[in-house]
Amino acid sequence: MLDTIQSAMDQFSDSDVVFTDIRHEIRQGTSMLLVNSVLRRFNKGGRSGTVARALVGECWGQASSTDEVTAESVLAILAQAASMAKASAKYSRKTIDLPERRVIEGSYPQSVKEDPLKVSSEEKLEAVQLLDQSQEVDDRVVNTNALYRDDKREFYLVNSMGSNVYWDEVRTYFVAQSVAKEGSRTQYDYDSKGGTAGFEMIRDIDIPEMGESVGKGAVDLLAASKPPSGEMTVVVDGNVAGLIAHEVCGHASEADEVVKKRSFLTGMVGKRVAAEQVTMVDDGTMDGLPGSYPFDSEGTPSSRTEIIGEGVYSGYLHTLETAALMDVTPTGNGRAQDYNRRVFARMSNTFFDRGDWSKDEIISDTRDGLYVILGSSGMEDVVGGGVQASALKGYVIKDGQLTDLVRSMTLTGQVLEILKTVDAVGDELEFSAGTCGKGEEDWVPVSSGGPHMRAKIVVGGG
After folding, report:
1. How far apart, in whole angstroms, are the C-alpha atoms of residue 389 and residue 413?
2. Three-class secondary structure of residue 174 per DSSP
3. The dihedral formed by the CA atoms of 412, 414, 416 and 418, expressed in degrees to the nearest 10
4. DSSP string spanning 183-213?
5. 3-state secondary structure at position 271
6. Whole-angstrom Cα distance, residue 16 to residue 89?
7. Taking the mean position of all CA atoms in its chain, how far away is CA 286?
8. Do 135 and 178 meet the contact criterion of CB atoms below 8 Å apart?
9. Quick one: DSSP state of residue 162?
10. Contacting residues for 27 by C-beta, under 8 A, at least 6 apart
């Protein structure tokens, strides 16, 4: 495959084109969803396609195809991409000088203990059935949901800088959600596991315990109180900390928003934006996390990027283009949903880094406040810097002790003002698997996380 793509690259010649790359993708996977023990979805299949990009001046052209990969078919889409770029460049006199990069060559297969493509559908179905049935812990559990999904992606990339590389990414996911109802009250709880791993991840899960915990969690929330409201001392778990990191600081650190001056973090490098205890990182190299990958969609190796270092804003997440525009090194965050989508600056594994407090120390040191756990949704405000993060549940803290269980709360405020009030950061990291859209589409696998953190935040809900 790489030889065929390289042959097309070698045959292409156009003095107006300053950079080209060609990427072929093969995707295979299985998805199973059970609802109340009924199999609602069972998809198993794959697809493949090839995309070529060309840069002329400051303008990109891109063309893709699902045709069989031959030197002729690849050369044809490369010519189409070049034609598009040249047509756009007629209306611009600017140029982008892409940064020189280390040439990448070779094969980089992911090491998994058990390739999910080699596990039978029957065995996968047994696992997801057990997860669904295990949630039936109480008559008040009226709806059970269990999802299994695996995904294998193979990439072949050649570019005009000399890179010629193959890699693959294998991810597996397992999700449970229970809905409980009593009278007019309805509550839900969930748990999810996911990462760059094979079916061994499923074998390592205590499936009955996972299902029972989610079912019991939904039932317990039926008796939960409304949360207090107003600005208060809040301790968030790593799940909620990650939601805040991802939705606001993460999206606003994607450099394609910064170069357009659409991010509230534009021009903030070197400025203090948070308390000294706060360090925030995006790291696509971490073993086992769903947002990890060896290379981005442009063939740049993934890396660890410090976004905030001890309260000082450090830097952005870059593609080849944004790195050239800002005269910095690419960070390996140029990601595309697939061969039919364009490359954007995207997060990988985004999190607040650990501190030196234990969870118990943070709780016991808090006289009055709210302990918030298990994020449910978040909204980004890249322009204004506001945060809105919703969580399923929490506990009132009185004199350093967890007391009443409370339900359904929303944390709001200006994120940099919140981060300046952080005065305790936990020593253990927790990550949550997910997918992230650029706006409403262009989804890529990510994770977010962090330690327990304490800050002043406005709470609402109930």
Report:
1. 10
2. strand
3. -40
4. TTEEEEEEEEEEES--THHHHTS-HHHHHHH
5. coil
6. 10
7. 13
8. yes
9. S
10. 46, 47, 48, 151, 152, 153, 154, 338
Residue 1 in tokens: 């495959």
User: Which residue, 217, 218, 209, 224, is CA-closest to 142?
Assistant: 218
Distances in Å between the alpha carbon of 370 and those of 109, 380, 426? 45, 23, 16
- For residue 312, is it left (φ>0), alpha (ψ between -120 and 50) or beta? beta
Angle at 430 between CA 345 and CA 130, to 5 degrees: 105
| Collapsed DSSP state (helix, strand, coil) of residue 218 | helix
Could you give phi then psi for residue 310, rounded to 5 degrees? Answer: 50, 45
Could you give the 3-state DSSP secondary structure of residue 313?
strand
User: Rg (Cα) of the chain, in Å, rounded?
Assistant: 24
335: its two tokens: 């990601």
Three-state SS for 48?
Answer: strand
* Separation between Cα atoms, residue 337 and residue 355, nearest integer Å: 34
The strand pairing partners of 372, in sequence order, are 236, 394
CA distance 303 to 333: 8
Predicted model pTM? 0.96
Residue with tokens 């205590």: 206
Helices and strands (H and E) in the chain: how many: 11, 21
User: How far, in Å, CA of 1 to CA of 9, rounded?
Assistant: 13
The CB-side HSE value for 374 (13 A sphere, CA atoms) comes to 18
Of 67, 90, 88, nearest to 77 by C-alpha is 67
What would the pLDDT profile of 145-161 be if each residue is shown by its tens digit?
Answer: 999 999 999 999 999 99
Distances from the Cα of 391 to the Cαs of 270, 326, 373, in angstroms? 32, 37, 6
Query: How many of the other CB atoms lie within 10 Å of CB of 41?
Result: 11
For 341-370, the DSSP string reads S--EE--SEEEEPP-SB-HHHHHHT-SEEE
All residues at 6 or more sequence positions from 127 whose CB lies less than 8 Å from its CB, including other chains: 148, 174, 202, 207
pLDDT at res. 99: 84
Half-sphere exposure of 123 (CA within 13 A, CB side): 10
**What are the tens digits of pLDDT across the range 222-251?**
999 999 999 999 999 999 999 999 988 899
For residue 80, give the DSSP letter.
H
Which pair of tokens denotes residue 168? 């693959």
Is the pLDDT confidence value at 462 over 80?
Answer: no
Got the DSSP string for 1-45? Answer: -HHHHHHHHHH---TT--EEEEEEEEEEEEEEEEETTEEEEEEEE
